[in-house]
Amino acid sequence: MNSATVKRFIAVALAPSLILYSLFVFVPVIWSAYYSLFNWSGIGQAAFIGLQNYKELLSDSIFWHSLGNNVIFVLASVLGQVPLALLLAIILYKSNALQRFLRAAVFMPMVLSTVVIGLIWNYVYHPQIGILNFLLDALNLSALKMEWLSDPDIAIFSLIPPLIWSFVGLYLIIFISALQNIPGELDDAAKIDGAKGFTKLFKITLPMIWGTIQVALILCIAGSLKSFDLVYIMTRGGPAHATELLATYMYNATFSTFRYGYGSTISTAIVIISLLLIGTSQWLTSRRK
Amino acid sequence: MSKLALHSPYSMKKTYSIRRIVSTIGWIFITIYGILTIYPLFWLILSSFKSNAQFFSEPFALPNQWMFDNFITAWTTSKMGVAFRNSTLVSIITLLFTLLLSGLTSYVLARFNFKLKGLTMLFFVVGMLIPIHSTLVPLFILMKQLSILNSYWALILPYTAFALPTAIFILTAYLSTIPKEIEEAAYIDGTSLWGVFFRIMLPISLPALSTVSILTFLHSWNDFSFALVFISKSTLKTLPLAVSNFADGFQTDYSLTLAAMTLSVIPTIIVFLLFQEQVMKGMTAGAVKG
Hints:
Number of strands of chain A: 2
Strand order of the largest sheet of chain A: 1-2
Oligomer: heterodimer
Number of helices of chain A: 14
CATH architecture of chain A: Orthogonal Bundle
Distance between the termini of chain B: 24 Å
Largest interface: A-B, 92 and 96 residues
Order of helices and strands of chain A: HEEHHHHHHHHHHHHH
Number of helices of chain B: 14
CATH superfamily of chain A: MetI-like
Shape of chain A: globular
Strand content of chain A: under 5%
Number of domains of chain A: 1
CATH topology of the largest domain in chain B: MetI-like fold
CATH architecture of the largest domain in chain B: Orthogonal Bundle
CATH superfamily of the largest domain in chain B: MetI-like
Number of domains of chain B: 2
Helix content of chain A: over 70%
Number of strands of chain B: 0
Largest sheet of chain B: none
Distance between the termini of chain A: 46 Å
């Protein structure tokens, strides 16, 4: 088989994937940046306005509030999902039946549609018929009952449990794989040296899976920046932008108020912020080997 | 759990009982956590059998009457049949495209060496970091200009595109573990590259292909954001979109909404229960440095 045939095959084999992928994943990001320089209602002509959208963005209080909400989500994910998943993984990484059942139970939300997850939790939080308030009544803690999703001050925090519930299973399985990959000899060496329990955890186990923890952090950050679905279903970003995220704000700006240019600006901002956060997290957790 | 260790009888007894306490607490915690975590789903399914009245008054009780009718009504009034059909169609076609495209790409990346190989791999990996919502607006505009908005392609194409990186990642990793001798014999026999691809590489990658299949199918089936933005015709709505609309319109008919929700999650739960290992492995692929 001559090299010309091989080259042609490679080109033909790669072409569809590359074209589809660039067209639907990369090009849009670049286009977004391009449209962000325009004022456009979606129909008719787009007016070039340079960086004006960005100027507006920087003084837009809803933008900053949304960013703050995103940061809250990122922190909640990183400080909530990851340690919880790690803890669960340490308990659940062996392979007996109960452990496998529990793993599957924790993972199950990952296969559910975000729509269903959002709706289930809407019911949990419903002020009149929700099981949370019902439970509080039953435990005589009625004083703690709140308008979980309609109180602007706590709404964003109410959204955190569903978020964690949805994704902790992912990190659980990631950490379990990592733990199972730790060579058995290390375990035995640790025993011989007398390292047990917490010492073993901090001095041996964690360092061994540090690489995985870093990757989990990236996924966590990237993922929580993607939490459009949940917020859209549960609160639409309300009440009055209290739970607005960058992604929901972008959606509203574009499709509800027909400001495609401004929506693109928010889009581009999301990409930039995303990359910054990921870069920072990697830098902060890198170890000098 | 406690293996033979070089301990004196005293310390062994002490560590044994402390370990037991900690371990038991750990197990109680984890079992409670397991039950709590599965409760919302359990509650959903149970509640969907209740009448509206009972749902209001006794959220925690078992259904007084098992109202199977809820499901039939939910199916007919929300036209779930149509939504199911749309979701199935879109997911299956996305799946086929993804398998074919990622299969070809992974074959090339795993088996051949060429100048831009590293760059190509990087290209696909970097894409995984792009927040998909940043592509919603430009893709909407692109599809409007291509006149494919409100068509199955409006979903199939982006779904496939976004499924490619993970698929390629999984398949390339798998193919790299297969010894090259397998194709070598075929090459010597004069089989064409395409022949080798279809008759040898694809069948041999079946395990990886099935992981990719489950993953791609689940993501297409459950996607909401793309469907929300790209589809507005009610005859083309996929399941998540249909369920979300349903919940909006029938504010007070809870049993119907719950029934609709249950119907929509049954397929995914069944797939998950049947293919647990593969689903979990697939979704976490690429995250573990093995």
